[in-house]
Every structure is written in structure tokens, then in C-alpha cells.
């Protein structure tokens, strides 16, 4: 009987977490899929041509990538291991996730004030070889916000609840992880 109650409670919690408007839809991670595809193309090119340099330049026009933080950070750490530099030209609102990507991969994050000057910004900050990095002065703002973003509200948090499986951060306690659907076991030790 206790098992039936626990199972029904679990199913109810799962349904409520699936129906929640705050739960990110994993199937809509188009931005991270595009970056991962670019990463794969660079890896294939490097293998076919015995090395070479890899670089991903992201022009962000205000798309909020905070909901895709987990998958993007995995991609950026993999890019760092493969010596692929990620640079970001930000035309819209600044993105802490993309700032972190540039910091992790030794790329440049720069704000484009006038979209008509985008080519000039790209030429000076992102499209040169790694040997010429020291010639061009770096972007002025070098501070990077490394606070985790809550998966339910996409807001930075200093202290939160972290899922032990998918490492998603929540601002409030939830007995079932909304990202990977892990049910936290509190009663068995």
C-alpha cells in the first residue's frame, strides 16, 4: 500500500513538473544545437586536414540563451579542450553565458553599439589569427559574471539547489528535477 501511495505521489509530481510553465523545453534548444553543429564541423575539418585552428564567432542579437546554459557550458568546455576559440559580438542585451564562453575558450566578448559597424568590430576582435591577438586592444569590459542561472526563472543565483545528475540549478527546492526528471530520494539512507 505504501508503495502505491509513493508511486501515485511520484506520478502526480512528474505531471505537475511537466505542465509547469517554468520548466524549460529541452526540445527547443536550437541555439545550443547550432553551436554543437559548428563544433562538430570544426572537429571534422581538423581531423581531415591534420590540425588547424578552430574558431566559432557568435553574433547575438538579443536571443536569451540562459535556458540553454547546461548544454552550452558543456559545449564550451569541450571547445576549450579542443582549442576552439569562441568569440561573441553582442548586439542585443548582454549574456552572462556567452561572456563565460569567451572567458573559458580565450575568445573575446564585445558589445556592438551600432550594428552598421559590425564588420569593423568583427575584424578587430574576432576574425584575426591567434598570433595577432596582442596587436588588437581587448574589449573594455573584462568582468565576467560566473553566477549560476536558475533553470526555472533564468535569473542569476548565489545559492541554489543543484541536481546531482544533470547539474541544473534551481532557486527553490523541487522533489523532482525539472530538467532530467530525477526523483530525489529523501527517506532511504
Structural class: alpha/beta
The SSE string, one letter per element, is: HHEHEHEHEEEE
Q: According to CATH, what is the topology of the domain at 25-146?
A: Rossmann fold
DSSP summary, beta strand count: 7
Look at the structure and give the mean pLDDT: 79
Strand order of the largest sheet: 1-2-3
Biggest sheet layout? 3 strands, parallel
Question: What is the number of helical segments per DSSP (H or I, 4+ residues)?
Answer: 5
CATH architecture of the domain at 25-146, by name, is: 3-Layer(aba) Sandwich
What is the CATH superfamily classification of the domain at 25-146? von Willebrand factor, type A domain
Oligomer: single chain
Radius of gyration, in Å, reads 20 Å
Envelope shape: elongated
Low-confidence stretches: 20-27
Beta-strand portion reads 5-15%
The percent of residues in helical segments reads: 25-40%
Calculate the terminal CA-CA distance, rounded to whole Å: 21 Å
CATH hierarchy, class of the domain at 25-146? Alpha Beta
Keywords: DNA damage, DNA repair, Metal-binding, Nucleus, Transcription, Transcription regulation, Zinc, Zinc-finger
Organism: Anisakis simplex
Protein name: General transcription factor IIH subunit 3
Family: Belongs to the TFB4 family.
Amino acid at each position: 500500500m505504501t508503495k502505491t501511495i509513493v508511486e501515485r505521489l511520484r506520478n502526480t509530481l512528474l505531471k505537475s513538473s511537466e505542465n509547469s510553465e517554468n520548466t524549460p523545453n529541452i526540445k527547443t534548444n536550437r541555439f545550443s544545437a547550432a553551436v554543437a553543429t559548428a563544433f562538430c564541423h570544426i572537429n571534422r575539418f581538423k581531423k581531415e586536414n591534420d590540425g588547424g585552428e578552430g574558431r566559432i564567432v557568435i553574433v547575438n542579437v538579443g536571443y536569451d540563451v540562459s535556458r540553454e546554459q547546461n548544454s552550452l557550458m558543456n559545449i564550451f568546455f569541450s571547445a576549450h579542450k579542443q582549442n576552439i576559440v569562441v568569440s561573441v559580438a553582442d548586439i542585443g542585451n548582454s549574456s552572462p553565458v556567452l561572456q563565460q564562453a569567451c572567458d573559458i575558450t580565450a575568445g573575446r566578448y564585445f558589445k556592438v553599439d551600432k550594428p552598421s559597424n559590425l564588420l569593423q568590430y568583427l575584424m578587430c576582435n574576432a576574425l584575426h589569427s591567434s598570433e595577432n591577438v596582442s596587436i588588437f586592444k581587448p574589449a573594455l569590459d573584462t568582468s565576467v559574471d560566473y553566477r549560476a542561472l536558475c533553470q526555472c526563472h533564468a535569473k542569476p543565483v548565489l545559492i541554489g539547489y543543484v541536481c546531482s545528475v544533470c547539474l541544473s540549478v534551481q532557486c527553490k527546492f523541487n522533489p523532482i528535477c525539472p530538467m532530467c526528471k530525477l526523483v530525489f530520494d529523501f527517506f532511504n539512507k
